[in-house]
Amino acid sequence: AEGDKGRSTLDTLLATTYCRSQFYLSSQLAQLHPELTMPMFSEITCRFQTARPEVKQLLLQYLLPWLHNMELVDPNVPPTNLLFYYQLHANEMGRSGGRREGWGSAEATEM
């Protein structure tokens, strides 16, 4: 019984550490390779459809960092004043330490 208790504790610790590592890896990949946003979004949401409930929660956590790379756009709305848009994003980048906020994409909007 003592061995089973130790194994159970170890399994719990490993599972927790593994989940944190996966989230960290997802965050790093989202920052370093924003061009992978759409393939990652597609893959995670595809797997989400058939995942068990406890796995669905993890998949949503892994998806979260990638959402920062997305900006939904409406192709039917005419573009706004581009100078204002660039000034707004320049100010946001200065406040966020240079981190980009997302990129508008009709592809992202369609997903």
TrEMBL record:
<dbReference type="GO" id="GO:0031175">
    <property type="term" value="P:neuron projection development"/>
</dbReference>
<dbReference type="GO" id="GO:0005938">
    <property type="term" value="C:cell cortex"/>
</dbReference>
<dbReference type="GO" id="GO:0000902">
    <property type="term" value="P:cell morphogenesis"/>
</dbReference>
<dbReference type="InterPro" id="IPR039867">
    <property type="entry name" value="Furry/Tao3/Mor2"/>
</dbReference>
<protein>
    <submittedName>
        <fullName>Uncharacterized protein</fullName>
    </submittedName>
</protein>
<dbReference type="GO" id="GO:0030427">
    <property type="term" value="C:site of polarized growth"/>
</dbReference>
